[in-house]
Amino acid sequence: MNHVWGLLSHPLREMQVIRRENETVSHHYTHHVLIMAAIPVLCAFIGTTQIGWDFGDGNVVRLSLFTGFYLAVLFYGLMLAGVAIMGRVISWMARDYPHRPSLASCMVFAGYVATPLFLSGIVALYPLVWLCALVGTLALLYTGYLLYIGIPAFLNINQEEGLRFSGSTLAIGVLLLEVLLALTVLLWGYGYRLF
């Protein structure tokens, strides 16, 4: 958790510190990912069960506590899986580089890069669709920035190669995010009708 402020205030320096730490995946998950992924889950649970989704047309859809809890558990699992998948994607894409990092390093890197997305979940306390979309887009842009500045130091490559690598990684990450969001919406819609 001590890297969160650094990633927001001085990201390049913090990425270099993260790279030197050699953190294990289990330590990273228990001290960062599990906690940070809980932020959007808890905020969405509170927002959707207490206030309800406001789609801007005057209709507010509020979930029951049981449905909200069920969907929160699924959402949490999807986010944890998303970080692990992105770590594997980064490892796979780095296979041809001379200073190829380990899979564990790639998973740790993916978890730290996802920090802005986790923090953007705070806005789900008051679930307005347009506000969530706006804040999510800003968080995605900052995640792309973290990739752009972090990849060259992480893979020990120049900035130009880093731009290509981070662009490709971001594109795959956005695709994965869209799949996870689609699954969440489908499960939410199915859960709303089921419960």
TrEMBL record:
UniProt-listed InterPro entries: Yip1_dom
Transmembrane listed as a keyword: yes
Parts of the chain that traverse the membrane: 33-53, 65-90, 102-122, 128-149, 170-190
UniProt superkingdom: Bacteria
Subcellular location field: Membrane
Domain (Yip1) ranges: 5-178
Alphabetical UniProt keywords: Membrane, Transmembrane, Transmembrane helix
Protein name: Putative membrane protein
Naturally occurring in which organism (per UniProt): Cronobacter condimenti 1330
